[in-house]
Amino acid sequence: MDVGFLRKTFGDRFVEDSSIAALYVHDASFVEGESNVFGVVFPETEGEVVELVRWAIKHKVPLFPQGSATSLSGNAAATARGLVVSFERMTKVEIDPGDGVAVVGPGVRIEELNVELARYGFFFPVDPGSMRSATIGGAIANGAGGMRGAKYGTVKDWVLGLRVVTGRGDVLKVGCKTFKCRNGYDLVRLFVGSEGTLGLITEAVLKLAPVPESAVAVLAYYDDVEPLVEDVVRVRASRIWPLFAEFLDAPTAAVVGLEERDTLFLGVDVNTGAEERVLKRLQSIVRGRVASVAVGWSEAMKLLEPRRRLYSAQVHLAQRGGGVLVIEDVAVPISKLPDAVRGLKKLAEKYGVPLLLGGHVGDGNLHPATWFRKEEGPGKAEKFIREMAELVVGLGGTVSAEHGVGTLKKDLIALELGDAVLTYMRELKKVFDPYNILNPGKIA
Amino acid sequence: MDVGFLRKTFGDRFVEDSSIAALYVHDASFVEGESNVFGVVFPETEGEVVELVRWAIKHKVPLFPQGSATSLSGNAAATARGLVVSFERMTKVEIDPGDGVAVVGPGVRIEELNVELARYGFFFPVDPGSMRSATIGGAIANGAGGMRGAKYGTVKDWVLGLRVVTGRGDVLKVGCKTFKCRNGYDLVRLFVGSEGTLGLITEAVLKLAPVPESAVAVLAYYDDVEPLVEDVVRVRASRIWPLFAEFLDAPTAAVVGLEERDTLFLGVDVNTGAEERVLKRLQSIVRGRVASVAVGWSEAMKLLEPRRRLYSAQVHLAQRGGGVLVIEDVAVPISKLPDAVRGLKKLAEKYGVPLLLGGHVGDGNLHPATWFRKEEGPGKAEKFIREMAELVVGLGGTVSAEHGVGTLKKDLIALELGDAVLTYMRELKKVFDPYNILNPGKIA
């Protein structure tokens, strides 16, 4: 295969050293990448990306696009002999506070963008657990959500326009720079969440939100998950739209340093001056024992910190047990959350697997975590996950709320979608990537 | 052609009488439909829709889906000899306040749904000008926006799942019943705004929003549009996210019964108890002359009423002048609105066409309206619109912010999108409707 082109075009931004390339072939999931890739390239311009795709078409080389590889479903793993394309050098940031938009390169980290935006009183509200390292390009490609999703939804709600290089080597400018447009089919949202299988994102126009004036939050402990979920429903029914409504079950709360009790983190954005009244309303609705309260935007964000520690706590716990961590990502209609929690605990017992439970109650989204010892293999965990998928689909839910499909969920989404939908998805893939060079083997 | 199937399947829900069918061939735009259609059918079940599509494939009969036909770009006009498919009989409404979702048939009117939802403290926040007659199915197919779009976006942000019959006769269940899912490509949003060209919507799962506790609003008059737009930008920069920020230019304000001045309608949802403080903040930011204020959710909505009268006022005015009304739908980045307004006024002078200007400042969306006498024909208006499109695209804007493409914008979106994007759109159409029987001649 002709790597001359790569050497010439990318110079020292083409890394051939297999020991370095090996660092880029996997993501945060337990999917093991293909160790024998051709290397990693770091494009800096859209033109380079176009040339790269044309070269890949010619030589039938799979391209594996990557932001900071924090995906949990194998979305960003290089799973075949090909080339990793890291977007970490494409980090343009242009903020237009008057228009309320930012034009950014795919390699910009969410956290870095928010540091810049804070100067103008704006923020990009989607906050996946990995937001300190996750890139905008990766978040878009994965359709990421986060803890403030109860109010702010997911990435799809905050992308106005994209520049994308398809698997045919075409540059498409889709969407717009205005807050809305209806100029034909919504290709923006077709690329959002497509996990790099339809096109490589080279630029994004993001919609920004004003940082709310203020917020209040409570952390409350419960003896059972049922009243916890009911309380979130009652808050929404009281014409209060939560900013976040996060949950940890008792064992998981203990892991992040809280009491060993089912724990609710409930936040609401409010007007300055309305803090006391809304806090009182929350306290009158919440029947759990309120262990701490927060007043003010930064304080409310701080109250969430134990919840944000969940991922690293899970990693440490799994490692201590010599285990490989598996973080799942299911959602059910909010009212079905108690059934889902009870069902998951029964399944964990049945298969004898460890289980930590936390998630976004406001979205009905749970992240069950389990782990297995490498020498035992994932057998038991896989059986647990399969039955978990059947459980949540039976409850009217989804097997992939915000982490995407990658390689790990390919079998599971079939349970939920049916063959016809998958057939159409495969045909869409062929329109944008007829040579199957863009992140092959993922999604459909 | 075999209409026996239609008679047998739909009985008196197949209307063959050409004088009645003629009422269904056009929408609210000036596009004249094909008077010689085969008739109108009113399906009641998804099964009937599937049979209908299979029959249409066999006989190569175009199907023209329709809600209440309030489209302004010819989206819902029957523009060839075919069959109109009216969804007005599919009016199921199932509300689940605990889960915060509603499952509805495509024929449900937005206003009717909101009357039901009010009992639970929820609402479907997208409010196109036509919301009293517009159906959910039509709003989804057109990707509708509305006056509360400054805060709540457009229909795409409020549809969780869909059941759709494609042009191949397949039933696809896409999306989910939960607040988020990432189960493969986002087919939900591919159907949203596809104007019935990819599939016929038979059911939708909608996300509901809690009705805000309270709101405040001001109506302010300006001598010029520039400070008006600047004030909206300054509000957003003050960490206030407007619920609505609507605009009428001086002649248009007079038409709806206000002073003949550039007029801003600015509303903000607030916590109960915070009304006075936020109102004071708005009054300190707004430099126009505040003519009225509103406190409370219903009162804020009432303050918008003159703005909501715009469409019928335009219709009457055009009719009085013996004219045919044309309502356009452009958007530019917010900061470019003054340039757009000035440019449009110059163009109206240049071509000697009447011009009324109003729109959604919060979204950068203007709805320039003009009219022409039937006997003169649309020549001058079309030239004006063409140059208007060049103007807004030059300002980084879009020729279709929320009304869609239909037949009237097909040439104009090419200015904005480029050939490559249109090529991909045509290929997508072929995946879902290879026989070109679904609303042919629209979009791409």
Give me a quick take on this structure.
2 copies of one chain form a homodimer. Chain A has 4 domains: 83 residues, Uridine Diphospho-n-acetylenolpyruvylglucosamine Reductase, domain 2; 118 residues, Uridine Diphospho-n-acetylenolpyruvylglucosamine Reductase, domain 3, CATH 3.30.465; 95 residues, Alpha-Beta Plaits (2-Layer Sandwich); 101 residues, Alpha-Beta Plaits (2-Layer Sandwich). Chain A has 17 helices and 20 strands.
Explained architecture:
- Two copies of one chain form a homodimer.
- Chain A is α+β, with helices and mostly antiparallel strands and 444 residues long.
- The first copy, chain A, folds into four domains: 4-86, Uridine Diphospho-n-acetylenolpyruvylglucosamine Reductase, domain 2, CATH 3.30.43; 93-210, 2-Layer Sandwich (Uridine Diphospho-n-acetylenolpyruvylglucosamine Reductase, domain 3); 214-308, 2-Layer Sandwich (Alpha-Beta Plaits), CATH 3.30.70; 320-420, Alpha-Beta Plaits (2-Layer Sandwich), CATH 3.30.70.
- Chain A is 35% helix and 21% strand.
- In chain A, strands 15-12-14-13-18-19-17 form a seven-stranded antiparallel β-sheet. A five-stranded antiparallel β-sheet of chain A has the order 5-6-10-8-9. A four-stranded mixed β-sheet of chain A has the order 1-2-4-3.
- In chain A, a hairpin with a 4-residue loop joins strand 5 and strand 6 (101-104).
- The longest helix of chain A is centred in the C-terminal third of the chain and has 16 residues, at 379-394.
- Chain A is globular.
- The two termini of chain A are 28 Å apart.
- At the A-B interface, strand 9, helix 7, strand 11, helix 8 and helix 16 of A face strand 9, helix 7, strand 11, helix 8 and helix 16 of B.
- Chains A, B: This is D-lactate dehydrogenase (cytochrome).
- Chains A, B: GO terms for molecular function: D-lactate dehydrogenase (cytochrome) activity; D-lactate dehydrogenase (NAD+) activity; FAD binding.
